[in-house]
TrEMBL record:
SUPFAM superfamilies: Ribonuclease H-like. Gene3D superfamilies: Ribonuclease H-like superfamily/Ribonuclease H. Pfam families: CAF1. It is found in: Cytoplasm; Nucleus. It catalyses: Exonucleolytic cleavage of poly(A) to 5'-AMP. This is poly(A)-specific ribonuclease. The chain crosses the membrane at residues 276-297. GO terms for cellular component: CCR4-NOT complex; cytoplasm; nucleus. Signal peptide: none annotated. One of its GO terms (biological process) is regulation of translation. Belongs to the CAF1 family.
């Protein structure tokens, strides 16, 4: 896997084109420390962090009674994040105008993952392989989660009130990040999850949630990017490229639909913390037990 992907940069808000290059840098265990050294300097000026993760899919579903659809969705998230390992994390840094730093703009962290030992959903792995992920590299040169978490804690981008996080349909993304940072399974209650989330990430904007408030925006990340006439840099379904496109989409939406006033939408994650009518689900078959929560495991998974 090549260490860098480049393409011509441009002004996210549609003014003059920039001549700098956007660079997505792959980070492995052998260059982890040196890249965090660079990040600690970048974040001093670029306080908006767009984020995306790649993970091994969904292999389990919770059973029992749930207070709402949002409660079910959180328990589904918790069950799978507890069972599975993160594969990739993309971080893109921007300033308050959506401009990226010169040189490297996006870091793509590649975590240790072993197809022979770790659990996954085959369709998700197929998608990632078709997008260019090379799992032999992850097995041999992947980042150890604990080492990454220690560096992230001292990076200046978590636990900071002046840092704004940008994401897209990001319950799972932040679930995996919290699992990394705490080295623990996710809390059983969604309210506790949000308490911890706000501590590590005080300001979060979820582009998918913002789309609910915007007329005529719909679909996934690529679809909304097409509607906003944004150009992707790098392969789809890789965390670095997706994080960059997420940041671009946020600033375009902020400009067009919110006239720059978007603070009231902070803290909402699409699909979570939206309590509606009580929803109950019961599944009799129990195949796996995880973190005091019974989960029904789909037939197609591997470990």
């Amino acid at each position: 896997m090549s260490s860098q992907m480049s393409a011509t940069n441009f002004n996210l808000l549609g003014a003059n084109s920039l001549k700098d290059e956007i660079t997505i840098k792959n980070v492995w265990n052998y260059n982890l420390h040196e890249e965090f050294y660079v990040i600690r300097r970048v974040v001093q000026k670029y306080h908006w962090v767009a984020m995306d993760t790649e993970f091994p899919g969904v292999v389990a579903r919770p059973i029992g009674e749930f207070r709402s659809t949002a409660d079910y969705q959180y328990q589904l998230l918790r069950c799978n994040v507890d069972l599975l390992r993160i594969i990739q994390l993309g971080l893109t840094f921007m300033d308050e105008n959506g401009r990226t730093p010169p040189g490297c703009t996006t870091w793509q962290f590649n975590f240790k993952f072993n197809l022979q030992e770790d659990m996954y959903a085959q369709d998700s792995i197929d998608l990632l392989q078709n997008s260019g992920l090379q799992f032999r590299e992850h097995e041999e040169h992947g980042i150890e989660p604990l080492e990454f978490a220690e560096l992230l804690m001292t990076s200046g981008i978590v636990l900071m009130d002046n840092i704004s996080w940008l994401s897209f349909h990001s319950g799972y993304d932040f679930g995996y990040l919290l699992k990394l940072l705490t080295d623990q399974n996710l809390p059983q209650e969604e309210s506790s999850f949000f308490e911890i989330l706000r501590m590590y990430f005080p300001t979060i904007y979820d582009v998918k949630y913002l789309m609910k408030l915007c007329k005529n925006l719909k679909g996934g990340l690529q679809e909304v990017a097409d509607q906003l006439e944004l150009r992707r840099v790098g392969p789809q379904h890789q965390a670095g490229s997706d994080s960059l496109l997420t940041g671009m989409a946020f600033f375009k939406i902020k400009e067009i639909f919110f006239d720059g006033n978007i603070e009231s939408t902070s803290g909402h994650l699409y699909g979570l913390s939206t309590y509606v009518l009580v929803y109950c689900a019961r599944i009799i078959t129990i195949n796996v037990f995880s973190s005091s929560l019974f989960c029904f495991v789909r037939q197609q998974f591997y470990f």
